[in-house]
Amino acid sequence: MKLQGKIALVTGGGRGIGKAIAKCFAREGAKVVICSRSGLELKEVEKEIKNEGKDVLIHVADITSIREVQRLFKTIKSYYGPIDILVNNASILGPKTEIISYPYQEWIKVIDVNITGMFNVTQSALKQMSPKNSGCIINISSGVGKSGKPQWGAYAVSKFGVEGLTQVLAPEVAHHNIRVMALNPGPTRTMMRAEACPDEDPQTVPPPEKLAETALYLAVSTTMKDSGKSYDARDLFDKTSP
Questions:
Q1: CA-CA-CA-CA torsion for 98, 100, 106, 110, nearest 10 degrees?
Q2: Which domains does the chain have, with CATH numbers?
Q3: pTM of the full predicted structure?
């Protein structure tokens, strides 16, 4: 019960990495809140977590809407109290094509979800964490956010933004004892990965449950000296193995 008494929000918690992290955190005693744009997916995760006798609150929200995000955090505070842990996981892939032919509306959509949405959620989370002088924010990044690759377009650019926001934010909130870290999952067995790499055998990459253990490690085992750092999940696998 490493997260006993903690309140954790996981965005994009209806599937894949977000779902795995939400279930992992709930098993460790956290009161977990998951949000996504799909109510059907959230209800399925809610059922799975409650079947294990754990606390969970689901909330349908479009994180690109500041009003919906503010409503989300108002709901969290009224149900559980101010949050302790935020996992910024929600993101979309967008088309894989060269910049010269990248559709404008798709570019705006990807940047809006992956960067502006993360900003909206993070800002609201900080308003609950700062008065407590404690908190942990884990931003899910990507390998293409560290080394750009052709045809990864807005997704890669947005993940560079995730890394940049992590570096900018960490020293700003250090005096509130809030840790901010980026986590690059590496290849992970998700629907997004299958869409991005259709020729890859999914059985050759780790499942999202493995990544969830690394997120738990960052939430529990890091200190303020680790804030602002970017971690690759595979470098932590040996630390999170049973």
A1: 60
A2: 7-240 (3.40.50.720)
A3: 0.94
